[in-house]
Specification:
Order of helices and strands: EEEHEEEHHHHEHEEE
Strand content: 15-25%
Radius of gyration: 23 Å
Strand order of the largest sheet: 6-7-8-3-9-10
Number of strands: 10
Number of helices: 6
Shape: elongated
Structural class: alpha/beta
Length: 225
């Protein structure tokens, strides 16, 4: 289980599903925002007692901004594909790569150009050269965008913490509960870090809700089902 520690407060458990973090301090809001994207003193993310880096976070931020599914999941897609390639397929790809290199070298020779293509077999580089595109889910609202992100993450087995900024402002209580249920089924962890002005009903009795006031006092909802 991942935990978010904001000094001097006790760690916040980020279990599967949605954790809503309501923050009253603008300064702290910025600090948490930055820490989820890069290292930041005073805010630490850990898993099973070990500090983990921002690479373990799938930072989405504000869902009103354009969402690039390829940027978010492209590397994960290639990593998954590399795990699935067997020896026969690997040999086929190596032969195709050799054929391509030979053809280009022949073209260089026939054109009397002073260059050559080295025989450096690197499957990862070969796959990165190909223009992979994530099959982007169809959506027509902000709820659909988040649902699409969760769906793709589930299909790719992406274990990164998904972090959204003020996402709950654009969702109804029922939509948040539905997303939480879907994430729990797929063992996905998400953090909604929100302004403290967020309506009180969000997450009531069903979600892990943590509030931090201006005095850095933490309040947790103990009525989670």
């Amino acid at each position: 289980m991942k935990k978010l520690t904001i000094y001097p407060l006790s760690p916040i458990e980020l279990s599967s599903g949605i954790t809503i973090l309501k923050i009253a301090s603008t300064k702290l809001m910025l600090q948490v925002n930055q820490s989820l994207q890069c290292a930041n003193e005073g805010v630490v993310l850990s898993q099973d007692g070990e500090i983990i880096t921002a690479k373990s976070v799938n930072y989405i931020g504000d869902i009103l901004q354009p969402i690039d599914f390829n940027k978010i999941f492209g590397k994960i897609l290639i990593k998954n594909l590399l795990k699935q390639i067997d020896d026969f397929e690997l040999n086929e790809l190596h032969e195709l790569n050799s054929t391509l290199q030979s053809k280009v070298n022949l073209m260089l020779f026939e054109s009397d150009l002073p260059g050559t293509v080295l025989d450096n077999w690197d499957l990862s580089r070969l796959l990165k050269y190909l223009d992979f595109q994530i099959e982007e889910p169809i959506y027509d609202d902000l709820y659909g965008i988040i649902e699409g992100i969760v769906s793709v993450a589930s299909k790719l087995g992406d274990t990164r913490l998904i972090a959204f900024c003020n996402a709950a402002l654009y969702l109804s209580d029922d939509q948040i509960k539905a997303l939480d249920c879907e994430m729990k089924i797929n063992n996905i962890e998400a953090l909604f870090f929100e302004s403290a002005t967020l309506r009180e009903s969000v997450g009531e009795r069903t979600l892990n809700v943590v509030e931090i006031d201006d005095d850095f006092v933490k309040f947790e909802d103990d009525s989670i089902d």
